[in-house]
Amino acid sequence: WSPQFDPNNTTTYTFEPDEGQCASTAEMTVTVIPFTNPEFTQIDDTCEGTELTLPTTSNNGITGVWSPQFDPNNTTAYTFEPDDGQCALTAEMTVAVIPFTNPEFTQIDDTCEGIELTLPTTSNNGITGVWSPQFDPNNTTAYTFEPDEGQCASTAEMTIVIIPSTIPEFTQIDDVCEGN
Length: 180
Fold this sequence. Notes:
Blueprint: E1 11-15, E2 26-30, E3 46-47, E4 64-67, E5 76-82, E6 91-95, E7 97-98, E8 111-112, E9 129-132, E10 141-147, E11 156-160, E12 162-163
Parallel strand pairs: 3-7, 8-12
Antiparallel strand pairs: 1-2, 4-5, 5-6, 9-10, 10-11
């Protein structure tokens, strides 16, 4: 066969039989398929505990499996192994797992009945969200802070104690004479 086999390029090869065999030359084209890099859309950073399924087909149609198995609690580098017969290379992707942050708030002091308060919508450590239920100026209530989406933050609770208004009571002073 000539030329010598080239494993990197599609080539037409010619077979020259040895003399004296009453055989003619033959040609064969060997098609060399270049390796394909599987392409994947990077998975966004994800909150701790979020379950994900890594795609088993790349954006350019390569099928395969990822290893190790997805870990929802730790940032991990994953390797994609293409299925056999696809002339595809391995691929890697690191999925960042962000630990949950606990919103921190300064406890609101016990408050007199009827005083209006606005609960903070941003924690001391920068987490935004909303409180529920709506503030009640007349009753001691436990409130729950629900962080806005995309912050990898847990809920928080705060009980605000409402001190009931007290009407002062006095013993009536008896009538007194002028000048006493």
